[in-house]
Amino acid sequence: MCGIVGAVSTRNIVPVLVQGLERLEYRGYDSCGVAVYAQDATPGLKRARSTARVAELAEQVATTHLEGTLGIAHTRWATHGAPVVHNAHPHFSHGTGLDAASKPGRIALVHNGIIENHDELRAALQARGYVFDSQTDTEVIAHLVDSLYDGDLFEAVKSALTHLHGAYAIAVFCKDEPQRLVGARAGSPLILGVGKDGQELFLASDAMALAGVTDQIVYLEEGDLIDMQLGKYWLFDKARKPVSPAQRPVKTVVAHSGAAELGPYRHYMQKEIFEQPRAIADTLEGVEGITPELFDQQMNHQPGANAARVFAQIDSVLILACGTSYYSGCTAKYWLESIAKIPTQVEVASEYRYRDSVPNPNTLVVTITQSGETADTLAALRHAQSLGMHHTLTICNVATSAMVRECSLAYVTRAGVEIGVASTKAFTAQLAGLFLLTLCLAQAKGRLSDAEEQRHMKAMRHLPAALQAVLALEPQVMAWADDFASCENALFLGRGLHYPIALEGALKLKEISYIHAEAYPAGELKHGPLALVTSSMPVVTVAPNDALLEKLKSNMHEVRARGGVLYVLADADTRIESGEGLHVIRMPEHYGELSPMLHVVPLQLLAYHTACARGTDVDKPRNLAKSVTVE
Ligand code: AGP
């Protein structure tokens, strides 16, 4: 989603800003821009903006010789106003009066988040003569800062923030103070980067934007405000009290560049699907046995938040997540209830945060998030905490994220940076973390014998090899994808533990191939969706050889009897053979409880190859973003 990079330096900073935007591209965006204080023959605010890719912005910058030592840049994912150039950030203020629009700009600003009271602020500013160039909520902040500016940018921003309702991370500068950059965050992440020479300072929404530029990072906390000048900065907390360096220490953060090598792959998504054996091996590395300490590992371990004590105390689990992460939570519910016998509720974070619920202080609140930045999941966590539920744990792929910082306990998966918008390796890594959590809770409740622990550990150690064998099915899945490429609808069926995998398969297909796909627990077929089944509706069935297989076979007969064409993922030992209207791919083994982690892989490949056949932008599907940092 939206991304911010800003810098105050002594060298031309534009190449660094543009490079930062390139590193943020993976988050998804529909326009981008960069602004500087130019000290050329006509000094002042100058900018370049584009609704194409950052590469096009880089060309514009080179052609127009945009240069400056102070600047800000942004990738925008449209919320208020269409993705057109005049809505792209940075936004400039330009004084008041009839000729306002032609007056040179004074304030330059970029913003992530949503200003909820932008309509009333806009009306008040318009009444004072401010003229707006865009439909964005962001532009009101630029004019608001301008209206409060009296020679001190920091004071103007500080005062402007008191008028804003909503979520924001901002970076702002003023042409009258060409060595000063001010930033603030509330509800959206923002970091400070300290350059190698100690002089150059950066602001960014994500440490990855600064990969290769600096690894010296300070994480701003909720409500923080920062005043930056060459080689020095001052931080203030939400009460506007000065913050000492000890309170926000500089951390060395190894952020890998988003522009990772594609190697032999056509897309990052394909690469990430094939990285799953390694992602799972890395995620499970060092796990010698089941012990609650696995969940104590995290950056700012909260005093008293000891997993052993928490696991003994809790009597239920509440999982909060969105999208693919929600489906990993739905899978974990089956494990938690069947193996650990702990009542588990899974909720879509954006629903939970706004509904009345009955809090239980002995619940373990588990958030699941690849990015650790998802606004709805963070808000749901805070909502649960506000209801008195303080046992919190996250399964997250980013160790430095807001989610890891805000939860007491964490299991940081090691899937590595995921660039494709469609989550693949992060999902299977989440499942690995959730299976470990299940075993730890089972152990804490006295429901895991040593023999069972050994059996599960052996199965987990086998996962990388098992995944590798499933990936070898790719040519067979490609043959299915040829059939799917010309369809506009598809149905996915699963039962029990594999129903969430059917949901995930359908989500993958719709998000990157734009084929309308639905998933149902197979037993529900005759309660409605069977009406959709015709010969032009492919029906994907996840059919492992488990206790529900015979029931699933009956559901498959119901589909065949209506002329529906079945695409079945069967286990090695399942007696289902290919035939008329029935295409079978046989999984290499039967995987027991860990089966969802293997069965999802052919579904990821099916979505990927179908999307390729349809010629969509696989890694950056339309309208979607990698990190959903607004609600
Ligand atoms: C998955 O393919 C999606 N793009 C999306 O559903 C994603 O899983 C969701 O936005 C949650 O993201 P998170 O894991 O970073 O919180």
TrEMBL record:
Organism (species): Rhodoferax lacus
Gene Ontology CC: one annotated term: cytosol
Protein name: Glutamine--fructose-6-phosphate aminotransferase [isomerizing]
Catalyzed reactions per annotation: D-fructose 6-phosphate + L-glutamine = D-glucosamine 6-phosphate + L-glutamate
Alphabetized CDD domains for the sequence: GFAT (cd00714), SIS_GlmS_GlmD_1 (cd05008), SIS_GlmS_GlmD_2 (cd05009)
Matches recorded under PANTHER family: GLUCOSAMINE--FRUCTOSE-6-PHOSPHATE AMINOTRANSFERASE, ISOMERIZING (PTHR10937), GLUTAMINE--FRUCTOSE-6-PHOSPHATE TRANSAMINASE (ISOMERIZING) (PTHR10937:SF0)
Assembly behavior: Homodimer.
Keyword line: Aminotransferase, Cytoplasm, Glutamine amidotransferase, Repeat, Transferase
Gene name of this polypeptide: glmS
GO biological process: carbohydrate metabolic process; fructose 6-phosphate metabolic process; protein N-linked glycosylation; UDP-N-acetylglucosamine metabolic process
Source superkingdom: Bacteria
Domain Glutamine amidotransferase type-2: 2-231
General function of this protein: Catalyzes the first step in hexosamine metabolism, converting fructose-6P into glucosamine-6P using glutamine as a nitrogen source.
The EC number(s) this enzyme carries: 2.6.1.16
Signal sequence region: none
Compartments where found: Cytoplasm
Domain SIS as annotated: residue spans: 307-447, 480-621
Single GO MF descriptor: carbohydrate derivative binding
Active site: C2, K626
